[in-house]
Amino acid sequence: MNVNLHRAGALRGSALIIVLWICLGLVSIALYFAQSMSFEIRAADNRVAAVQSEQAIAGALRYATNILINLQTPGLLPDETSYERERVMVDEASFWFIGRSDQQTALDQPWFSFVDEGSKLDLNTATVEMLELLPRMTPQLAGAIVDWRDANSTVSDGGGAEDETYQRLSPPYRCKNAPFESIDELRLVDGMDLELLYGDDANLNGALDPN
Fold first, then answer.
1. Cβ neighbours of residue 84 under 8 Å, at least 6 residues apart?
2. pLDDT digits over 56-83, tens only?
3. CA–CA distance from 121 to each of 65, 114, 144 (Å)?
4. Contact 189, 161 (CB under 8 A)
5. Which domains does the chain have, with CATH numbers?
6. pTM for this one?
7. Apex CA 165: angle with CA 163 and CA 168, to 5°?
8. Where are the beta strands (DSSP E) in the chain?
9. CA 128 to chain CA centroid, nearest Å
10. Which helix (H) or strand (E) holds 64?
């Protein structure tokens, strides 16, 4: 009698262990599929966000085209108050016209408006005086920009940088004394830093991301 009870208890214990393993397996499978569905939901959200971004870009292009076509004075930029410039909604997406204006009071804050491409400076022809009109530009940095591109080794009046300055850096390098090939080349000019060059748009995506 005792032997039969012992065997029955052992069988019940074995069955319990098997049931526990089965439950553990089912829970693991459920967690796996739940994680897979979570990834699928995120991927779907990303696809929706990509479509919304493309539609926002297309909407911004059509909106800007309409504004420029209906200018009262062709060739002049429209007044900033005559059109939406900041957080213009396209369904659930939005866009901004990021530029600069002579109405700005704080040069270190973003301004939203059209930008006249014809008013931009050419790094290879702009004078020190023209460069000094740029936001946060100093006479020393303006002179260093001109010294980087000119063909001589004479430091500009009022400040600048030639080989002597760049040879003291670590690692040292020489002043180019040749025209700029890209805007990014400004990173090599003495006195320039990424925050001054790119501002809050360090990743160059045209949006004010959290930083």
1. 63
2. 888 888 988 888 888 877 667 787 788 8
3. 24, 16, 16
4. yes
5. 1-113 (no CATH), 121-211 (1.10.40.60)
6. 0.49
7. 105
8. 88-90, 93-95, 98-99, 111-112
9. 29
10. helix 2-69
